[in-house]
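Exam revision sheet. Question 4 asks you to relate a sequence to its structure. Input first:
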Amino acid sequence: MLLFLLFLFLQSTSITSHGLPRPFQIPPTPSNVIVKSIPYQCDGRSYTGYAAIPIQQTQTQQRPGILIGHTWTGLGKMEQYRAAQIASKLGFVAFALDVYGTGIRPPTQQAAKIEMDKVLSNLTDFHRRVDCGMEQLLTTTAPNGCSVNASVLFANGYCFGGVMVIELARRNTQNLIAISSFHGELANLTSQTNDNIHSVVQIHHADLDFQGPTALLSFEDEMRSQNVTHWSTIKYGSVSHGWTDPTSMNYRKFEADMAHNNMFSMYDQILTN
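Answer key, structure tokens:
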């Protein structure tokens, strides 16, 4: 029932609440990062993800891994940019998964909604597609020998990708240290009586998000009721859904940089404490 109500809610929102498309050119790949597209299989279906791997200058070749969840328009320029940014700044092995499938990149927001609804219509399959992305992250390596430390995993997601990473935390994915969701939909798809969240949870929410203020309040109630040890919600004023996405007209660079700096600081604090 809860999932059905979420479908009705998403269908009642305006397509343009996600922001019209905005021209965006991916910055040059940082000199300390290798990037590559990675085809992979999940239950007999083909997907194509994107990896950004730090070029190690020390003897320590295993690095923390981070899974990146894409918006409802599929894996594209924004996720590729964020993967390289995180790999360069934090030294993580970053992998942007693909839950739609190779070649499925909706050209319009109307088409994106159709594809997202298809995936969400089968919650078990949705979770499996995300888990396959995590499995692919764990096998990602570079020619220089850099690989993922399977005991130190993070995840961040945008819009639809926010749902992906929050659900990873709700399902207590093994060795998932922390997640960060940027304008992600917040409804609990699993409707569990006990989320069993052990990850640190960080939510970045727009003051003008189409989900309204009650969505954030409900999520905060969920965190309290499930006795999550470390969680935070940060609301950014006068911004709309998608404000961290440079491919959206809702993009606000100042607040987007602030949100990502908050994420970088949280991850750094976790690793140094």
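Marking note for examiners. The radius of gyration is 17 Å.
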